[in-house]
């Protein structure tokens, strides 16, 4: 029998990459080479903006999808197929509506070939541990969201996974239910009442990560990569109001709101040859945010400035809702973010004190100065005799750099922003972009 020391890694990612081939044959890189170790005894939070590859990374660890290159090791052995040591809790609960709670919890054990009697016994024990006692014969539709997710937890834990993977497990629940369940899970983990040696949680919530995790791994996007690997040494249970807690939340905020910031404490590479990094993409990844919401956000900032984290709390906004707006405003140089503090730039000040025409003019100038895709569309339109472009041309230009879905999103954003600024228009039925006759601003290109 192989004896495992406590510090031997459960999972090792050695230069793991993921790319997908587009229908047009082009390859889009989702994750750059990732080096990461998960050890027994730790809760690791994977945090990052939408599309940074958090779920993809988790699915590769679980063996649900293979890496494009590099290796996933489980107890130092290359993983082939499904990872036998992993169970997953999904955001959407993923329960079978026609099965009872007990039958749903038994499912994972059944898939592992566990005979009926011990299967039932293990499922009932986990139902008890997870607080579902008395609901064994209920059907999912008879349960609240929180109770349904308990079934998700019980089903994953019943197979006694070495690594419990959770993909945004609390985000479909209301705030109070999520908080209760989070702390109950933490209780179970700290009291060692659940048979799992390590937990990996994918989340958008900075506070959730700081409350639960022993390590926070921050991913960046386009392509996905590890930007920071931060240890959390605060003792449990953590006080959200303590200066140390707030300082860590601020630090993570700072990393997330500065996509260009250099990697912080990059993880130690694992000793295997790995592929050279792919060329950096030349397009910014534009957040799907309308100019109207940037304008509304800037107006909110007029009388306030300061800590992003506290502003989000004041506006009752989720991180994932606020960060794209901040990012878009940063791209347009309308705000400045330093050390987690946000303030209006001089252009932002001018924007909020202007009327609609002047605002359009400001956005036009900022787009042409800073946004590569808008510059390109505008330049191509000017170069055409009929000043019209088919959308396919822009999508084809984008698709080597983004997935087809993301390319479409980037296109939609660039159209939306350009339309607001009256730089160009878009005719949906024909799929044509065309120059607004009246506008011929100077194209001032600075490096984005
Ligand atoms: N099967 C697939 N084919 C093509 N592209 C894919 C596929 N699966 C994921 N992607 C793309 O990979 C990128 C990363 O997706 P992933 O779901 O891992 O990100 P994420 O960080 O978990 O995002 P979110 O926070 O929004 O869930 C996205 O751009 C997504 O569109």
From TrEMBL:
Q: Where does the record say this protein resides?
A: Cell inner membrane
Q: Which GO terms describe its cellular component?
A: plasma membrane
CDD domains (UniProt xref): ABC_NrtD_SsuB_transporters (cd03293)
An example Gene Ontology molecular-function term: ATP hydrolysis activity
**Pfam families reported in the protein's UniProt record:** AAA_assoc_C, ABC_tran
Q: Where is region (Disordered) located?
A: 264-285
Tell whether ATP-binding is among the UniProt keywords.
Answer: yes
Protein's membrane topology = Peripheral membrane protein
* InterPro entries found in the cross-reference section: AAA+_ATPase, AAA-associated_dom_C, ABC_transporter-like_ATP-bd, ABC_transporter-like_CS, ABC_transporter_ATP-bind, P-loop_NTPase
The segment(s) forming the ABC transporter domain are: 11-246
What keywords is this UniProt entry annotated with? ATP-binding, Nucleotide-binding, Transport
Query: Of which family is this protein a member?
Result: Belongs to the ABC transporter superfamily. Nitrate/nitrite/cyanate uptake transporter (NitT) (TC 3.A.1.16) family.
Name of the protein in question:
Nitrate ABC transporter ATP-binding protein
| Organism of derivation | Neosynechococcus sphagnicola sy1
Cite the source lineage.
Bacteria, Bacillati, Cyanobacteriota, Cyanophyceae, Neosynechococcales
């Amino acid at each position: 029998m192989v004896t495992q020391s406590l510090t031997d890694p459960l999972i090792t990612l050695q230069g793991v990459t993921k790319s997908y081939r587009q229908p047009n044959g082009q390859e889009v890189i989702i994750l750059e080479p990732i080096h990461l170790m998960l050890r027994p005894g730790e809760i690791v939070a994977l945090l990052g903006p939408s599309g940074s590859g958090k779920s993809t990374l988790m699915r590769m660890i679980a063996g649900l999808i293979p890496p494009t290159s590099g290796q996933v090791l489980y107890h130092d052995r290359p993983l082939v197929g499904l990872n036998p040591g992993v169970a997953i809790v999904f955001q959407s609960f993923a329960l079978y509506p026609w099965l009872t709670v007990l039958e749903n919890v038994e499912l994972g054990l059944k898939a592992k070939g566990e005979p009926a009697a011990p299967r039932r016994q293990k499922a009932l024990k986990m139902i008890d541990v997870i607080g579902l006692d008395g609901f064994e014969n209920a059907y999912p539709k008879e349960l609240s969201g929180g109770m349904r997710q308990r079934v998700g937890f019980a089903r994953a834990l019943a197979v006694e996974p070495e690594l419990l993977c959770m993909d945004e497990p609390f985000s479909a629940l209301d705030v109070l239910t999520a908080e209760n369940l989070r702390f109950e899970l933490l209780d179970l983990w700290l009291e060692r009442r659940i048979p799992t040696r390590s937990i990996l949680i994918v989340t958008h919530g900075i506070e959730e990560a700081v409350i639960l995790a022993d390590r926070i791994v921050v991913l960046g996007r386009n392509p996905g990569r590890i930007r920071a690997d931060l240890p959390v040494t605060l003792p449990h249970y953590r006080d959200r109001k303590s200066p140390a807690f707030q300082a860590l939340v601020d630090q993570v905020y700072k990393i997330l709101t500065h996509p260009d910031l250099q990697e912080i404490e990059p993880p130690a590479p694992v000793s295997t040859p790995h592929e050279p990094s792919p060329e950096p993409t030349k397009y910014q990844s534009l957040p799907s945010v309308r100019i109207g919401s940037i304008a509304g956000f800037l107006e909110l900032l007029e009388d306030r400035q300061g800590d992003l984290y506290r502003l989000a709390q004041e506006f009752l906004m989720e991180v994932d809702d606020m960060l794209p707006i901040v990012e878009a405003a940063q791209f347009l140089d309308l705000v400045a973010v330093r050390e987690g503090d946000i303030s209006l730039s001089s252009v932002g000040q001018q924007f909020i004190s202007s009327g609609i025409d002047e605002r359009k003019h400001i956005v036009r100038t900022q787009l042409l100065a800073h946004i590569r895709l808008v510059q390109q569309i505008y330049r191509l339109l000017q170069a055409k005799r009929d000043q019209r472009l088919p959308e396919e041309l822009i999508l084809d230009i984008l698709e080597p750099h983004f997935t087809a879905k993301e390319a479409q999103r980037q296109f939609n954003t660039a159209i939306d922003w350009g339309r607001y600024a009256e730089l160009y228009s878009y005719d949906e039925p024909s799929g044509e972009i065309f120059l607004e006759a009246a506008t011929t601003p100077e194209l001032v290109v600075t490096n984005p």
